[in-house]
Amino acid sequence: MGHGAAGTCGVxxxxxxxxxxxxxxxxxxxxEHAATRAAIERFCTLVDNAERHALDTISTEFTDALxxxxxxxxxxxxxxxxxxxxxxxxxxxxNTEADDPSTLGGxxxxxxxxxxxxxxxxxxxxxxxxxxVGDGELIFSVWHxxxxxxRHILGKPRHPIQVVLTAKGRLPIEKGLMFNAPDVxxxxxxxxxxxxxxxxxxxxxxWITVVNMGHPSNIREGIERLGKDFAIHRISAIGGRSxxxxxxxxxLVRDLYxxxxxxxxxxxxxxMYIGTHPPQRELIxxxxxxxxxxxxxxxxxxxD
Length: 304
Prior knowledge:
The chain has one domain (2-301): 3-Layer(aba) Sandwich (Dihydrofolate Reductase, subunit A). The protein has helices at residues 2-37, 61-67, 107-118, 130-133, 145-153, 192-201, 219-230, 241-249, and strands spanning 43-48, 56-58, 71-73, 83-90, 125-129, 161-166, 186-190, 208-212, 234-237, 253-260, 280-289, 294-301. α6 (192-201) links the parallel β7 and β8. It contains eight helices and twelve strands. The longest helix is centred in the first third of the chain and has 36 residues, at 2-37. With 304 residues, the protein is of the alpha/beta class. The strands form two sheets. Strands 1-11-12-10-4-9-5-6-7-8 form a ten-stranded mixed beta sheet, sandwiched between helices.
């Protein structure tokens, strides 16, 4: 009787894994289809100060043609915390939140080449806050075939590790695609008050790891643990605003990739940074499309 029950459970688990794999494959197909069919417009370089710094360069025929030159990122520094880049799109009036983010007007190049492309093509992990993760029916990865191939050339796994930052523990672990795709590891950086309950909920999902950041949460310690314990050396962070502000305040963000649209949109008074000590920005690159969308790369330096 006992052996029969165990066998049935094993079959059920295998069926669930197949369903999750199918869901991931279907999601990937939709994203890749959208990326290849998008009307991606080209940018023209207005400013390029990269030669002043020792930056890593990502350069392919495909991306150079669209961005009018290479894409830059800070190098990984041995013995330092992981190199973190932050990616945001804002409306012309500086708003970064909207019910539908596409209405902010970043455009297809921002979405498919920068946001879901070059900013994370070399990343070991993509980090987002729990509000950005939402119902979990997504995977933060690279989708355009040319960038998927570039990630392969760089020796990276198909999908970056998914890192989720949470203080309240309200995550859809039991049903969200992100948390139920065994081939895509998830690390949850959690406040001490919710880390054990989250670990208990994730116990049957060995691809999910919960990291206790203490109380109050110490995000710098959490990011440092990603480097020491999980060999994560480069992170692409995508918000929301609370997560972005915490990372900036902790002095962890080296590169800011900011796209500013040519339209007035979004919820009023929702800037990217909501802290009291905005970082110093040094402009590295400014590019503009014919539709007036501006892409800028800044190096960030925390104010003392």
